[in-house]
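Write out the 3D structure for:
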Amino acid sequence: MANPIIDIFKVKELRKRIIFTLICLLVFRLGAYLPLPGIDRNTIVNYLTQSSQGFGGIFNFLDLIVGGAFNNVSIFMLGIMPYITTSIIINLLTIIFPKLKKMYEEEGGKKKMQRYTRYLTVPVTMIQAFTTVQMLLGQIPQAIRISNVSFIIIGMITVTTGTCFLMWLGEQITQRGIGNGISLLIFAGIVARIPSAIITLVQTIRDPNSQFNPVFLIITMCLFVVIVALVIYEQQGQRKIPVYYAKRVIGRKVYGSQNHYLPFKINPSGVIPVIFASAILTFPIQIMQGLNIPWLAGLANQLTWDGPVYNVLYGLFIIGFSYFYTQVTLNPQDISKNIRENGGSIPGIRSEKMEEYLSKILNRIILPGSLFLAFIAIIPNIISVVFHFPRSVAALMGGTSLLILVGVDLDTMSQIEGYLRMHHHEGILKKGKIKGRNL
């Protein structure tokens, strides 16, 4: 029986794509340790060592997503989050303005929208970079070795350039690598935090003054395995809608009837709602904390990522974006139109009722899927409060990070599986099939 790992490196095209992807991820990780110009790194390290909460607020959550680049005050400190925020804005504008939606559906429209997203990412990044630099001036002025004006200008340009470079790097991974470059950059950032989280957990266990009970570690690890299994099961679940195509005559050939099905996933949008919800909450809170305006800072403090208000909003945004993104990617009207144009029908459903039927099915399966995503997203706080887990460890054992890790891993395995089967290899799994999804 062939070894799938060996088969991966036997396929020349796949081998080149994997190596290229690994090189890009290495560049991303190296950039996470390159500090901004005019920053004293030792002063920042001492500040973070003395402050158990780091920079505090939403910035700790952002640091988790970007793999520690924020606490390093590096050129990649904002990661790819401004690009994701811009993508949300563009998608919302497409729904609000019919002309944009029409342009998106035209030939080449998708490329135009991607180009507009890149252009809009620059001002969005500059706004976030400005507030971030202002936050640094407010919290660690002793670490700045140049004038405030110079630091603001250089910091904004450097951080914006870093995000634009990551945006380009993600596109290169998508085109020349294994695919889904943006998601893989987020995945790599979260994975990079695992070693430090393990060290923190060991230090907590050894600390005699800690309230952490080592027995809870076993319970939590078992809970973690169950959660991972549930996430995989939920992301692979499908509702199959049968579709019947009648006989067709094309030229002199008669094509027989065929039976197909529409595979509607329980969670059609994957981890996209989680990433979107994180980005849409991070953006305004980051601005409020970075402007150094007392009443805005007070409001931002009420929206800390481990607080109840933030988690309620987070859950609602996940549910909302689940419905929103599904309607964008799986429009019942377009699906019904394509089925009718190809001479298809759904057994027991009249042609004019097909759109209504598909909408009803989608709404029924999206609700439990979105509720499950929202529940998983707030699990870190439950683990942290109940078992007195360090928040950096709990954040990796549930919530956003776990959903992204599992979702991107499943999709990457699906991409590799496709390449292997295309070259007549058995694939990664001996039994079953990985159902992939573009993130």
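Residues 435-439 have pLDDT under 50 and may be disordered.
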